[in-house]
Design brief:
4-stranded antiparallel sheet; 17% strand; alpha/beta; 328 residues; 2 domains; elongated; 8-stranded parallel sheet; Aldolase_TIM (chains A, B, C, D); homotetramer
C-alpha cells in the first residue's frame, strides 16, 4: 500500500510512527510512503488522514522499483558518471582482468572512446568448473589502479555473499551476473552495501522476476540499481547465441524508474554482430551500453570471440551516441 | 553444387546443356551455375573444365537465397520503390482495408510521411474463425484505386493458392504471413508469379527454416523476395506480445542477399512500443519498416491497439531515416 | 453465447428460428445451442424463455471444441477404429509411402502390433524444396490398397486446399501437419469434408491457437477432429529436436472434448528416444499414439533416423497399452 | 583426457604420481583416471604405458558426470534410501516447514505412501522479497525430529554458501534449487560436503549447462549427486506454469550415470495436473518423484495451489510404481 502524503515531512512522520509500531518493509520516496507487505489499510489507522493526498492500494509487488512508488527516473551518481534519465553511459573493458598493463591499456582506449566506467572480471562465472575462474584479489588490485590512474569508475562482478566485502574494498559498482539474478542471498548482501549495483537479466527471466530481483536489493536499503538486458535464450542456437530483447526496453522504461543498459557483447556472442545488436538496444531506449574489448581478441583469456577491438569500439560508441541523440 | 564459370555466357551454356540432360533445379546467377540437388560432381562431367573458375561443393541447402550463390545484394524494383542494398523503404497502411475512403486517406498520410508502398489486408488470417475475415475482392479494388490515385505500390496478403490469381490481378507485391511461412503450396504458387513477394518469418522459425521457405519461392523461378522479421514468440506473455528479434538481422544480412525489413506493429502489439521497436530494427540493419496506421485506432476493424496515428508515423519515419543514415 | 434448452427438440427449434433470421455460426449439441459470434442476449429475444434452462455468456472463443459447449468426450467412429473416451488407439506406418509392397508390409506389422490406422505420406511437407516431396497420387493408391487388404483405416496428410478432393477420394482420415496448423484455407477445406481430421499442433502454438485452429474445421461443419501433440520447439537443439509437451495433455483433456493423441517419432527425432517419449505421453493421458516405422530405417526415403523397427513398435505398443490401463 | 588402466591399483598409482606433479583436477573411477583439464597426452608421459588399456581423448567437458568416465549407474546410499539404477524413490513433504506437528503429520502420510525421503523448506527462495522466507533453523529442527521419528531421510534446500554448515548439521540431503543451478559458489560449497546433493535444473538450462553445474559439485570431491527435472519455461503462460521436459530424461539416462528424478509439483503448478505430469516423467524413465503435499492446501504457507492431499499422493505413488515396473 502506498500513501501519498501532503509533503515530505508528513511522510517522514508516518515512517517514524510505523517503525515505532514495528512495521517492516516501510519505505519513503519524497512524500510517498510505501508499505510493501501491507494490503489492508486498517493496519494504517495511525496515519493522520488530514495529511493524506492519495491511497494507492494497487501497485506492483516489486513496489520500490516501480514508477507507482517512484515516478521520476532514478539518477545514479558516481565519481565519474551520472547514470539514468537522458544521460547515455558507456562501459567498456576486457572480459577478464589479465594483467595490470592490459587492464590499463584497455581502460585508456575505453576512456578515449567516451567510456567513464571500466569493467573487467576477477571472479568469473564459467559454465565449466575447469575453465579459468579469474585472478581474484590480484585482479581487483590491478583493476582499481587502472581506474584510479585513468579517472574512471571501476565495475566488477561479485559471485558470492562471502566476497562482497572484499570486492567492495576495490570496486565502485557491483555487477550481478545473469546466472545470479535470483541468487537472493547475494542480492541481499549487495543490498546492504552503499554502492551502485548493476543487475543483469537472467537467461529467461520475465519482467516481473527481474524487477522482483531488483526489489530484493532495494528491500535491504540500497536503491542505486541499474538493470542490464544481455540477450535472452531463444530457439535458434545455430546462428544466435542469445537474442537481444529490445522489446523489453520500452516496457521497462514505462514500469520502472531504474536506468536500463544493454550488453551487446554477450547477446551477440560474436564480434561481427556486437555493433548492430548494441545500436538496436540504444534505438529501443537503452540508457547505456557495456562492451567487451580486447586488443588481441584471439589471445583473450575469456570470450575473445565476442570482444571488439578498441577501434571497433570507437566506431560503435560514436554511432550509439548519435542514435541516442535521435531517440532520447 | 555451385560452379563458377569464366563468364555469363559459359554459365548459360552449362544451363542449356544441363536442361538437355533433364537435370532439375539448375539456376544461374551471372557467371555462377547452381545445381541445387546435386552433391556429386561426377554428374557434371559434361561441363567444359577449361571454363570453370571454381567449384563450390559446400553451400547452404537453401542455395539460391544464399550469398554463396548470389554474393551481392538483391535489388527489387517496382513502379514506385527500389528495395534492398543501401535503400530504406517505408511501407504503411491500415491493418485491414475498411472502405475506399479510408484506405485512400491512410495512403495519403503514408505517402506524405515517405512511404512508397501502401499495405492493407483484404484477406485476414484471424486466429478465430468467427472474427472479421476481410472484405475480399471488394477490398482489393479499393486498395488498388488508392494506390493508383496516390502513385504508390500496393501490397496485400494472400492466404491460399486458390486466391493467388485473383489477388495478383490487383496487387503489386504479395505478402505471405507468419502463419503461412511454411505453407509450401502457397509458396510455390507465388513462386510462379512475376511479382515481388514479402515473406514474413514464422512465429518461431529458425534462420534455416526461413531461408528454406524463401528458397521454395525461388525454386519456382521468382527471386524477387523480401524477408520480414515481425517478432518471435517468447516466454513473457504478460508484458510482451512478441520479441522483435533484432539479433537475426545482422545474421541474415550476412547469409542472404535478400532485403530484410521489419514489422514493429506486430512485434510490439501495442502502439506505445511500436516506435522503439521499429527504430531498434533499423539500427540493427533492417532495410525497411512496415507500419500499421489508423486515424481512429479504437475504431479499427482489426488490431487497432497496435496502430499508430498518422502523426506518430511521421515521427517514427523521420527518426528511422536518421538512424538508417547512421548505420548503413 | 450458449443457450441450454430443456431438450433437444426445443434446441432444434431455436436453430431453425435462428437460421430464418439469417444468423450465422449457430451450432447445436444435444440440448445446447451455441451462437459463436453473438455476445448480447438481446439479439436472441426470439427464443421462448420458458424452454431455457441456462444461459452461458462466458465461454471460450473456440466455442464448439470446448467442454462448455460439448461436455462429454467426442467419440470418432471409423470403419476400423473408435477413437476417444477411454479407448486407446495406435496409428503406425512409414513416414513416406515408398512402394506398394513396402506400405503393405509395414501395415501388416502395424496391424499385428495392434494398430488400426495405417499412416503414410504421399504429399510430404519438406523444409527444403529440393528434398523428395512424396509420390503423390500413386502413393495414395498403394496406401489405399494396403489399408483395404489389411482391414485398416488409411490416414494421410493433405497440404493444400486444391488437393483435398483428390486425397479425399482415397483416405479415411485427413492429417493436417504442424506447419499448416494455421493454414486457414486448408482448415476450412477439410472442414467441409465428411471425414475425420487429425490436427497436429504447430511448432510453438499456444493452447488457444490450437483450439481455435480446430474451431476453424468445426465452423465449417466437420466436428470429427482429433488433436495431436508432436513436440514443441525448445531451446536445446544440441540434444533435443523437440520437447514432447506432456504438460499440455491434461490441460487439453480438461478444456476440450476432442481426443488427444501424441506423435513421439517427430517429438524425439531419433529412434532411441521414441519409446520413452511416447510412453510419457500415454502416462500423461494421451488417448493414442502415432509411430513411424521402417524395416530398414537407414534406407528410408524420409526421416529414417526416427523410425522404429516393427519389433521396437511391438514392445512400445505393449507398454503403452499397459500404461494406458493404469492411468485411464 | 581419460586413461583406462589395466586395474584399479595401476589407476591409483597414476593418481598418486599426478598429485606429486601438482596436477589438478585428477579423478579416478575404478580403473579409469580422468584429467579434467588436460587435452594433450604429452603432459602424461609419466604414465607407465604398459598398464594403459585405452586413452580416451574425446570426452564431455563435464567429465566426471559423464558415462564416458563412469559407465555404470551411480547408486546413492542413505540411511533409509537407495537411489539410482533400477530403484524407484519417492520423496514427499510440505513445500515449507510450518510447525513440528505439521511436518510430522505430513511425514507420516508420506511414509505410509512409500516415501523414504521427507522434504520441506526452511529457507525458501521466493520471487518477491516480502513473501514468507521460511522458518530458518527452527524449521530445520522440527524437520530433523520428524525424519528421525519416522525413520526417513531429511532433504531441504540450502540457498547460500554461508548456510551450508548449519543446514548440514540437520539435513541428510542438500537440495539446490532451480534459481541456484549456476550459483557456483554454492555448488562448490556443497561439493565439499559429505552428503548427497539433489540438483534441480535451471528454468531454461541446457543439458550441457546442467551437467556442468553437477560437475562443479563433483570437482570439489562430492559425487553423490542426483538431478531433478522440474519443468522448463515455455511460451504458453496462460495454461501452463512450466513444461515438464520428459524428452530430456532419456537423453540424460544416456549421457550421465547420475540418478534422474522429477518434480511434477513445480512443473504443473496446479494440483489437478500433478499426477499426469508426474506419471509422464516416470514413463520417460525418471528414477524417482518428489511431490509436495498438504493436508489443507488452501491454508499452506507457500504454493498451496500445487500441493496434493495425502490421499492424492497415495494414488499417484501407486500408479507411479506400477509404471516404473513396466518401463524399467
Amino acid at each position: 500500500m502506498i500513501i501519498v502524503m501532503k509533503d515530505k515531512q508528513a511522510a517522514q512522520t508516518v515512517v517514524t510512527q510505523a517503525k515505532s509500531f514495528q512495521l517492516n518493509h516501510v519505505y519513503r520516496f519524497e512524500n510517498r510512503v510505501g508499505f510493501a507487505d501491507i494490503k489492508n489499510s486498517a493496519a494504517l489507522s495511525f496515519i493522520n488522514q488530514d495529511d493524506v493526498i492519495e491511497i494507492i492500494a494497487e501497485h506492483p509487488a516489486a513496489m520500490q522499483v516501480s514508477r507507482t512508488f517512484h515516478p521520476n527516473d532514478t539518477m545514479i551518481q558516481t565519481a565519474h558518471s551520472q547514470i539514468g534519465g537522458d544521460n547515455f553511459n558507456l562501459i567498456a573493458g576486457p572480459d577478464a582482468i589479465e594483467s595490470a598493463e592490459h587492464v590499463l591499456a584497455m581502460g585508456k582506449s575505453a576512456k578515449a572512446a567516451g567510456a567513464t566506467i571500466l569493467r573487467g572480471g576477477s571472479y568469473k562465472p564459467r559454465t565449466n568448473p575447469y575453465s579459468f575462474q579469474g585472478l581474484g584479489e590480484q585482479g581487483l588490485k590491478w583493476h582499481r589502479i587502472a581506474a584510479d590512474t585513468l579517472g574512471m569508475d571501476m565495475m566488477t562482478e561479485v559471485m558470492s555473499p562471502a566476497d562482497v566485502d572484499l570486492v567492495g574494498q576495490y570496486t565502485d559498482i557491483f555487477q550481478i551476473g545473469t546466472r545470479n539474478m535470483q541468487n537472493f542471498a547475494l542480492l541481499k548482501a549487495v543490498g546492504q552495501q552503499d554502492k551502485p549495483v548493476l543487475l543483469k537479466r537472467g537467461m529467461s527471466a520475465t519482467v516481473d522476476e527481474w524487477l522482483s530481483a531488483a526489489e530484493y536489493i532495494a528491500s535491504e536499503g540500497n536503491t542505486q540499481i541499474m538493470l542490464m538486458e544481455r540477450g535472452i535464450r531463444s530457439f535458434d542456437q545455430k546462428y544466435l547465441r542469445n537474442t537481444m530483447d529490445v522489446s523489453v526496453i520500452p516496457v521497462l522504461r514505462e514500469l520502472t524508474h531504474l536506468p536500463i543498459l544493454a550488453d551487446p557483447s554477450h547477446a551477440a556472442g560474436v564480434a561481427e554482430h556486437v555493433t548492430a545488436t548494441g545500436l538496436a538496444a540504444v534505438a529501443a531506449g537503452a540508457q547505456g551500453l557495456m562492451i567487451e574489448i580486447h586488443d588481441q581478441p584471439t589471445k583473450a583469456l575469456v570470450d575473445g570471440k565476442q570482444a571488439l577491438t578498441p577501434e571497433q569500439m570507437v566506431s560503435l560508441f560514436e554511432k550509439a551516441q548519435a542514435i541516442h541523440d535521435i531517440v532520447r
